Amino acid sequence: MPDVDGVQMDDGTAAALQQLSRLGSELTARQPVIENRLNYLRGHHPLVYASDEFQSYMGDRFHGFADNWCAPVINSPAERMNILGIRPAGETAADKEMQRIWRDNACDRTSSEALTVMLAAARSYALVWNNPRDEQTPRITFERADQCVVRHDPETGEATAGLKLWRDEKYEYATLYTPEALWKWRRAAARVVPEGDRPDPAVQAGGGWEPRQSAKDDTWPVPNPLGALPLVEFRNQTLLDDAPISDIDGVIAMQNAINLVWAYLMNALDYATLPQRVVTGADMPKVPVLNSDGQKVDEKPLDLDQLVKDRILWIPSESASTSEWSAARLDVFSSVIERAIEHVAAQTRTPPHYLIGRIANLSAEALASAETGLVSKTGERIVYANPDVREIHALSYLVLDNDAKARAMRGGTVLWADPQYRALGQKVDAMMKLKQIGFPFAWIAEQYGLEPEEVARVMEMREHESRMDPLAAMVDEMGRSGGAPAEPPTEPAAEPAGEPAAEPGP
User: Which residue among 5, 51, 281, 475 is least enclosed by CB atoms within 10 Å?
Assistant: First the structure.
């Protein structure tokens, strides 16, 4: 048995510890990138200056300023990605049991947050496991992108291992997920070691990890009854590799430029929006240097930067004169900002009126046309998320020990709300035309955007109304079909008994 940090471990435990170390290193390297992307989504932007001089003058004045355009770029598609349910393979209706499980876990909200993080940070995660409080309701949690990592087989692309890593004030915790088992570890939280001191033994080579076992765990490691990785990774667009792309990777540089131009604009607003005067014919101002007795012993140049900041003008020469120049124009800055925002809109397929906010008598058709790129982009992101949503549903049925349902979920159809927004009149008109050409009412109700449970409720209410007032239902059907309802066929009159039927004529 190998010796790891002085503790005898079997081969399986040593291999798990090595895998934890590799995944932990990958996650640690990824965390600064994820944090930077999410900070830009939140609006926490470091102001990037064009020159060191401007930074030295204005660094403190604009600390924390951000004109956040990353948020609408992410939120515009994210707010249109709403999961309504899933229809298992081979079935025609949404799975009611999964709708209950989804609601019980508050996945309406948390899945929306996970999809937002997927678009911004390029990754997000979901964890499916049994719920000790309710054996009939698997637990579904969506996890932070900077705390989880999943390893994929380079040949098959199959997820082979996952790691969740987090910490509190005292310990750092890790859970390694494999299709066979869950390995739970902890170690003392790493402390900051001054340079030159010996490293903390808890973070030396070998990791300092020790097994972690809760009161409810009978064994260590915990066997995985699912036979599949319970940690699911949502990955945004990739280029056939394991490096998903954030939707704001290309926006960050332009965001920095916009913030910088705003800083210049506000600097001009403070210093150059009033007529300015310049002093000529004057010596450089100097201040006396006094000794301990208060006697002048020398002179030193006055800090002109301090004069500018304090708005003080000192003219010691009688021959000094002043001249004036006009106030600066600020519209040159605002036009640059607007052009940069237009570039953001074009590069990210975000409708310009979402960012600029100017709408001048545009028709409904023109607005729908302006949002075509966003609708297409949202549909593309839905395609990226579909396999992972199906896997969450499949794992939920594996927790319930229903392999047949799990297979049906992996081949099922995820039901999403329509990502295209239409005026109510346009939508109703389209639905009526679909009904007239023969589409079933239940399908039309789904396309209208109702959740599966609402579709079933509407159908029940419709059936109840038909039973209560059959005449009104017949008239309603006649109005939708554009003519009188077809009458049922009548049976031919019976021949009189004992008389042969007439022979047909020649």
Answer: 51
